[in-house]
Amino acid sequence: MTLHFGPPSPGRQIPTLVTERLILRDWRAEDITPYSRMTQEPEMSRYTGGGPMDEEAVWRHAAFQLGHWALRGFGMWVVRDRFTGEFIGRAGLYEELGWPGVEVAWTVRRDRWGQGLAPEAGTAAVEFAFLHVGVDRVVSICHPDNARSRRVMEKVGLALDGAWSLHGRPSVVYAITREAWAARSV
């Protein structure tokens, strides 16, 4: 996959990634309402232990995501359809204190599942991690029963790496090394 970088938003140092069908860009106030609507779908939080978020909670979440960029130099992007501008979800990189590594993660609106958008966004984020963040390994974490997420992880190139406990909940960790990623990219 070849990423095309757009300019950062005015006053921000968050790059924009452009893939075949997606734009991954910084969080903006206009993303609060559609992200809040997305979280209202019960299936969206089935395995995360979270739940629906109202606009106030989404506002705090967006501020948290922007803060992650400031603290770590990487983070989550808002994902929009490249051609229509439609809000699709979020994807990117995350590393909480005590995490087993830099994590690639995604959340795509329920009505857009099955279209290959999560693997496309996840692949762009992994490429960004290896080329611009400089990590040697990227992980992804999910509940062991989350078969959909596990399939996306495999499509992105990650392989099962072991079990873990995420905030007291059983989880599995998938991982890809720089070497394995480079071999896939040839």
Descriptive notes:
- With 186 residues, the protein is α+β, with helices and mostly antiparallel strands.
- 33% of the residues lie in helices and 29% in strands.
- The chain is built from 5 helices and 9 strands; from the N terminus they run βββααβββαβαββα.
- It has a 9-stranded mixed sheet, with helices on both faces.
- It starts with a strand and ends with a helix.
- The model is unreliable at 5-10 (pLDDT under 50).
Describe the SSE topology.
Blueprint: E1 4-6, E2 16-18, E3 22-25, H1 32-39, H2 55-72, E4 76-81, E5 87-94, E6 102-108, H3 117-133, E7 137-142, H4 147-156, E8 159-166, E9 169-177, H5 178-185
Helix pairs in contact: 1-2, 3-4
TL;DR?
The chain is α+β, with helices and mostly antiparallel strands and 186 residues long. The protein has helices at 32-39, 55-72, 117-133, 147-156, 178-185, and strands at residues 4-6, 16-18, 22-25, 76-81, 87-94, 102-108, 137-142, 159-166, 169-177.
Walk across the major sheet and give the strand order: 1-2-3-4-5-6-7-9-8
So how many helices?
A: 5
The radius of gyration is 15 Å
What is the residue-averaged pLDDT?
87
Key features of this structure:
186 residues; alpha+beta; nine-stranded mixed beta sheet; 5 helices; 33% helix; 29% strand
